[in-house]
């Protein structure tokens, strides 16, 4: 990070701080935001966390999750906190467009210090300080790095550790990809600080309602299509499916990963019909870049093996477009071998 000592000196004085993360926050967005919240609050700062939209209820157990402000619900309150902040942290996103109207307001705060901490490709140059590492497993890993750069790693307590562990687990698929010796060193430190990994794995993964399993069964039995010639699997959900299963935010989290459990599926697509757009979530094995597909064809992006985008067409036209793209990537997809490491 550039000028880390300047930032450390700036934080020696109590500040009014706003922590932000992206729309439709996932475990990494929530974990990094709350982990940083606890660290800064413990050091005497006035800290608030704000997201553009609500977070999945499965993360409601996280310490201080009830203190998160949602712009979609409390726009005027969040706008006030943006305007009065001395310092704004931008976590798990690298472009202010990812936080919608919050981003427009933050961009207008020319005298407010901005810090970006993120692990996505191609960061925009809007922050005064930037900790960006595309090799990092998660933004939660980078929050630990950030605290360590400030020389305060001994301040990482159980509450901070539980938040950071949550983001690491969810963004690595329970340590199935994006891992490194450095990451496991950090996880070991979190366990030393009192994190109960078995308890957290249960809270993260074994906390579903019956409808979630019913929805998963419906996806795999009725909405899954396999394309053997392209080693690709597709699951779709329509507006009618959303209504029938009363699908709420977070209910579809992880469904796309089930396709990759199949030996002969190298690329997975989860395509869902939303009220105004069709969203596409892509996953891949090995060195197959779904980030390129999302970026070049669906106004999106993300990581090499996990990306997303959107289409303004119909559900059927979006599925058709995705299928028509596959011949362009066929050689890359078929080249995957199980001996090829996940990145």
Description:
It is a single chain. With 343 residues, the chain is α/β, with parallel strands linked by helices. Helices cover 41% and strands 18% of the residues. It is built from 13 helices and twelve strands. It has a six-stranded parallel beta sheet, with helices on both faces. Strand 9 and strand 10 form a beta hairpin. Helix 2 (27-42) runs antiparallel to helix 6 (158-171), helix 5 packs antiparallel against helix 6 and helix 6 (158-171) packs across helix 8 (197-205). The relative contact order is 0.10.
CATH superfamily of the largest domain: inorganic pyrophosphatase (n-terminal core)
Structural class determined from secondary elements: alpha/beta
Classify the beta-strand content into a percent band. Answer: 15-25%
Could you name the CATH class of the largest domain? Alpha Beta
- CATH topology group of the largest domain: inorganic pyrophosphatase (n-terminal core)
Rg, Cα atoms, Å: 20 Å
Q: Show unreliable segments.
A: none
Topology as H/E string?
A: HEHEEHEHEEHHHHHEEHHEEHEEH
Q: Got a strand count?
A: 12
Number of helices: 13
């Amino acid at each position: 990070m550039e000028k880390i000592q300047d930032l450390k000196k700036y934080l020696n004085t109590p500040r009014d701080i706003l922590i932000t993360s992206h729309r439709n926050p996932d475990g990494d967005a929530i974990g990094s935001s709350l982990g940083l919240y606890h660290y800064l609050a413990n050091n005497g700062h006035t800290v608030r966390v704000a997201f553009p939209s609500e977070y999945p209820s499965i993360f409601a157990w996280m310490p201080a999750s009830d203190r998160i402000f949602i712009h979609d619900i409390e726009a005027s309150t969040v706008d006030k906190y943006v305007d009065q902040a001395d310092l704004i942290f931008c976590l798990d996103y690298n472009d202010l467009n990812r936080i919608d109207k919050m981003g427009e307001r933050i961009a207008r705060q020319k005298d407010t210090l901005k810090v970006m901490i993120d692990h996505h490709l191609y960061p925009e140059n809007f922050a005064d300080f930037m900790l960006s590492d595309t090799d990092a497993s998660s933004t939660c890993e980078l929050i630990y790095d950030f605290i360590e750069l400030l020389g305060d790693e001994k301040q990482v307590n159980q509450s901070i550790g539980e938040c950071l562990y949550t983001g690491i687990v969810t963004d690595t698929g329970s340590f199935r990809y994006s891992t490194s010796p450095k990451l496991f060193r950090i996880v070991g430190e979190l366990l030393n600080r009192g994190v109960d990994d078995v308890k957290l794995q249960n809270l993260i993964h074994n906390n579903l309602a019956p409808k979630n399993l019913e929805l998963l069964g419906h996806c795999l039995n009725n909405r899954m299509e396999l394309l053997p010639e392209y080693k690709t699997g597709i699951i779709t959900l329509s507006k009618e499916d959303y209504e029938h299963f009363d699908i709420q935010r977070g209910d579809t989290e992880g469904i796309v990963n089930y396709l990759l459990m199949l030996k002969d599926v190298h690329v997975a697509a989860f395509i869902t019909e939303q009220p105004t757009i069709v969203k596409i979530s892509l996953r891949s094995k090995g060195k197959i870049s779904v980030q390129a597909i999302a970026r070049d064809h669906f106004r999106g992006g993300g990581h090499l093996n996990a990306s997303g985008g959107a289409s303004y067409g119909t559900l059927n036209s979006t599925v058709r477009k995705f299928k028509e793209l596959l011949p362009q990537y066929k050689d890359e997809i078929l080249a995957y071998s199980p001996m090829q490491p996940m990145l």
